[in-house]
Amino acid sequence: xxxxxxxxxxxxxxxxxxxxxxxxxxxxxxxxxxxxxxxxxxxxxxxxxxxxxxxxxxxxxxxxxxxxxxxxxxxxxxxxxxxxxxxxxxxxxxxxxxxxxxxxxxxxxx
Length: 110
What we know:
Layout: E1 2-11, H1 16-32, E2 36-52, E3 55-67, H2 72-80, E4 85-92
Antiparallel strand pairs: 1-3, 1-4, 2-3
């Protein structure tokens, strides 16, 4: 099992209730493939730099989850069937580097 981040762009006209239903549906697709949802982040509505599928803006959301790497293609195919999703991108989650404290350098005494 590896940890992934999935960025969704939903249609801009979805209301809050429909968006919540779509996020629950997306999370249930992950759990149906024996994955585990770690975190869901709603990032709000944003405009696009250029139109995407004749849309000027969309609702962004991020789901962090663990899943068997062999199931990623199946998951992407299932998301493509959802007409409320404009774009999906799944990438491996990166760990933040931990701060390391460097020891002070001793100066030679004369």
